[in-house]
Amino acid sequence: MPAPLMDVFAPPPIDFVRGEGVWLYTESGEKYLDFIAGIAVNSLGHAHPQIAAALSEQAGKLWHVSNMFRIPGQQALAAKYVEATGLDRVFFCNSGTEAIEAALKTARKYFAAKGEPERFRIITFEGAFHGRSYAAINAGGNAAYLDGFGPRMDGFDQVPFGDIEAVKAAVTPETCAILIEPVQGEGGVRAAPLEYLKALRKLCDEHGLLLIYDEVQCGAGRTGKLFAYQWADGKADPDIMTVAKGVGAGFPLGACLATEEAAGGMQFGAHGTTFGGNPLAMAVGNAVWDILADPAFMEQVNATANYMSQQLHRLKDAHPDKVEEVRGKGLLVGLKLKDGVANKDIQKACRDEKLLIGVAGGNVLRFAPPLIATPDEARQAIDILDRALGQAGRAEA
Predict the structure, then answer these.
(1) What are the start-end ranges of the H helices in the chain?
(2) Last residue of some domain: 263, 292, 321?
(3) Parallel, antiparallel, or unpaired for β 364-367 and 358-360?
């Protein structure tokens, strides 16, 4: 009898049954240091007592009523998002992909409502990853993700990441928005320079375009601020932003935020969700936000991030034949490996020593540990990575 699951994943033969903080445990009691955190999802680690308590309390009260009825937790969490970002409207959903779908529809609907339906094209970037829905894979443009799913969807114009002249050249009378990850995750853990984000903001203002940030992976405190664009100090603010992953700390939660103007076309019936913003997700989301928004917590995140960055640069110097570059920002960081050293081989070598890390495009190792990770835990991870790099052999040219 064939396996009942679709073969769209290829996990290693390890079954985790329990988690605590930055650690995962198997049935036999083997202990793994988790420095990928469900791909930047478990922002507060595993089994965080405050989050578990919030979920348990709500589970004993009410799970679901749908958006046919008001859900008080939505109002509370939306108010927190609005206060922290300066954006005005929030749509809650279940995932980053759903948040992206809402953002794309919001941008196109904005111009349609203004009587300019011909403005529907969106500029995106090489290396982008925006999710796995049909619209999202077309926005991302990765040929491997598009293969076999029919004709490409019209309306996306992709340009090189970081090339402002290419963006300018791509703007046409049909352009409605620019969509970018301030820090690319899947695309190789590449951080957009702040001056580049500022230039995009200026370009959008000049042409009346909407600037959309995909902060599904780099938001929720991952870079050392609540949202990555905030490092630009108000000079590169978005019109629309998507969040997910870390804002739910492991519980399915996403959101699309927008300014009052950008959200103007999203009136009754323009969009919807059955499960999005349900009472369970809102209980968790509010509890997570209250922890992330504590300045003392973010100081801890930056302390660990600074230590980890220093140590990764040390590894680059120690293994010049294997490490080409240290990338990323905060606790979303990567090591670009040189040709002949495969990222998946290093990932497996680390896993064999009970360290869990990820990989990304461009032969990059990806690290996205829980934000509660300490410098000491980062040191343990770096020590294992150091040994893995030291033992790695160069492939024959």
Answers:
(1) 37-40, 49-59, 72-85, 96-113, 134-140, 143-146, 164-170, 194-207, 279-292, 295-318, 343-352, 375-391
(2) 292
(3) antiparallel
Which residue, chain included where needed, has tokens 């390890």? 14
pLDDT tens, position by position, 192-234: 999 999 999 999 999 999 999 999 999 999 999 999 999 999 9
Domain range spanning residue 385?
16-34+295-391
Q: Are strands 323-329 and 332-337 parallel, antiparallel or unpaired?
A: antiparallel
Q: Indicate whether 42 belongs to any domain.
A: no
- pLDDT tens readout for residues 259-299: 999 999 999 999 999 999 999 999 999 999 999 999 999 99
Number of domains in the chain: 2
Q: Are residues 270 and 301 in the same domain?
A: no
CA angle 273, 279, 283 (to 5 degrees): 125
254 and 118 belong to one structural domain: yes
Residue 180 belongs to some domain of the structure = yes
CATH of the domain at 306: 3.90.1150.10
Copy the structure tokens of residue 349: 């070598």
Is the pTM value of this prediction over 0.90? yes
Distance separating alpha carbons of residues 87 and 229, to the nearest angstrom: 13
Q: Kindly state whether residue 353 falls inside one of the protein's structural domains.
A: yes
Of 292, 313, 334, the last residue of a domain is 292
Please, is 268 exposed, middle or buried when counting C-beta atoms within 10 Å of its C-beta (0-12, 13-18, 19+)? Answer: exposed
Helix, strand and coil percent figures for the chain, each rounded to 5: 40, 20, 40
Query: Each residue of 132-172: pLDDT tens digit?
Result: 999 999 999 999 999 999 999 999 999 999 999 999 999 99
Positive or negative: CA dihedral 227, 228, 232, 237: negative
